[in-house]
Every structure is written in structure tokens, then in C-alpha cells.
Design goal:
It is a single chain. This protein is an alpha/beta fold. The chain has one domain: Alpha-Beta Barrel (TIM Barrel), CATH 3.20.20.70. It contains 11 helices and 8 strands. About 45% of the residues are buried. Bound molecules: phosphoenolpyruvate.
Length: about 250
């Protein structure tokens, strides 16, 4: 049975003070024992500080990006072995902001996926359609294309140690959430695409929903059979809201 996972993507927000207050607050909430599996992805410069605060293992650490290269003359980049050394377990790959703002292609995303796994990290592979694609009825075909582009490069076996996140671009940071039924339809479709490669992989893979998930809508999303948790942006910066989401996920485990 798939366990629910909730991952906070802090994006480029925060300060050392915020890292401290958010993580001490979250840890205090998590200590009550009713959180689903939870991870936070602070900006890279705060990962070391976060690692020193997340000592009891209840909340895992993730990064928001990784270089496809292991080391070398790549000014400004951070490698997967570096993230692993800092204590990261996850890394977000293929977020729509990186695809749109930093021109990340499927080919590059596949390289990052491979680099992450080579260092023992679990990639959280993001995909999702634009509003225009949804409105023109292309959402399912588009996300299937995004997924197969990566499977064809990394192989289906690599998905044994990965997480998928369906993040419709029109729902990210907009306050407009996909309805539970809309999200479920896409998750079910992604699982069907995976099943064409491997039925066991399709059954086992955690598929998170991302896009304005919040304390009010999380439980309804998690009640859907193919939604295995959430990748949370804005609401992950508030201890109380994020805790509600982590508890809602655990209640539906
Ligand atoms: C995200 O950036 O991955 C995200 C889901 O953001 P938000 O929850 O703010 O829509």
C-alpha cells in the first residue's frame, strides 16, 4: 500500500530566522506523532542549517534543484553528492518554474534524475500542463508525453526510487486548485501510462498533487485513490497550515 507523503517547497523564500522558527515549530507539531511522511525543501543555502535542526528524523530534508554534473567547473551549481552529504533525501526535479524560467528541457531533467539517484537521492519529478493545454483538451496527452520522455531516458526501473508530482501550471501559486476529481483523473492517467511499462511500478509509485494545496482542500485531495500526498508551496511556509496538511495525509494513510 502506498503511504502518503507531504513535501514543502519553500522556493526562494526565507532567512536563517525563518528556517529556525518554521522547523522548530514543525518539529514540535510532528512530535505529536500524527504526521504522514513529511519533507521540507528549503533554499540550498539553508540546507545545512535545516539539517542541524531536523535531528529526530521525523521530517526529511530535500533540495529544490540539483546539477546534472557530479563535480567540476560549473560556477553556481550544487551537485547531488553535495546534497546527499548535507543530509538531503529528496530533490525536486523538473518543476514548472525551472522548465519555464530556466529553460530546463526533458533531456536535462532526465540527466538530473540520473545524477540524483546516483548519489542516493530520491528525485521528485514534477510535470503538469498549462492552462491553455487544459482548455484545449490536451492535458492528459501532454503529461503523458512529459512522463514518457523521462521514462524513455532513465528506464522504468529507476522509478522504483522516485516520486512523481502532478502540478498543473495554472494551479501553482494561483490559489486555484485542481478539483479532487480533476487531479484524480490525471493521476489515474499517469498510473496507466506507467503500467504500460511496468504494472508493479505503476502500483508502487507515489504520485503527489501540487498546485495551491492548502489546509482547507488537502483532505479532499487525499481521499482520491491515486493521490498519494502533496507538493506544497505557499502553505508550507506556515507551520499551522502545513501541519494540517501533514495530519490530513496521515489520516488518509
Ligand atoms: C509548487 O511550487 O510546487 C507549488 C505547488 O506551489 P503552491 O502550493 O504555492 O501552488
Amino acid at each position: 500500500m502506498r503511504r502518503k507523503l507531504v513535501v514543502g517547497n519553500w522556493k526562494m523564500h526565507g532567512s536563517q530566522e525563518l528556517v529556525h522558527s518554521l522547523l522548530t515549530g514543525l518539529q514540535a507539531q510532528a512530535t505529536q506523532g500524527d504526521f504522514a511522511d513529511t519533507a521540507v525543501c528549503p533554499p540550498a543555502v539553508f540546507l545545512a542549517q535545516a539539517a542541524t535542526l531536523l535531528t529526530d528524523g521525523r521530517i526529511a530534508l530535500g533540495a529544490q534543484n540539483v546539477s546534472q554534473h557530479e563535480q567540476g567547473a560549473y560556477t553556481g551549481e550544487v551537485s547531488a553528492p553535495m546534497l546527499a552529504e548535507l543530509g538531503c533525501r529528496y530533490v525536486i526535479i523538473g518543476h514548472s518554474e525551472r522548465r519555464a524560467l530556466f529553460a530546463e528541457t526533458d533531456a536535462l531533467i532526465a540527466e538530473k534524475f540520473i545524477a540524483a539517484q546516483a548519489a542516493g537521492l530520491t528525485p521528485i519529478l514534477c510535470l503538469g500542463e498549462s492552462l491553455q493545454q487544459r482548455e484545449s483538451g490536451q492535458a492528459l496527452a501532454f503529461v503523458a508525453e512529459q512522463l514518457t520522455a523521462i521514462i524513455d531516458k532513465v528506464g522504468i526501473a529507476a522509478f522504483d526510487k522516485a516520486v512523481l508530482a502532478y502540478e498543473p501550471i495554472w494551479a501553482i501559486g494561483t490559489g486555484v486548485t485542481a478539483s479532487p476529481e480533476q487531479a484524480q483523473a490525471v493521476h489515474q492517467h499517469l498510473r496507466a501510462v506507467l503500467a504500460q511499462y511496468s504494472e508493479p511500478a505503476a502500483v508502487a509509485l507515489q504520485i503527489l498533487y501540487g498546485g495551491s494545496a492548502n489546509a482547507a482542500n488537502a483532505a479532499l485531495l487525499f481521499a482520491q485513490p491515486d493521490i498519494d500526498g502533496a507538493l506544497v508551496g505557499g502553505a508550507s511556509l506556515k507551520v499551522d497550515d502545513f501541519s494540517v496538511i501533514c495530519r490530513a495525509a496521515q489520516s488518509s494513510n
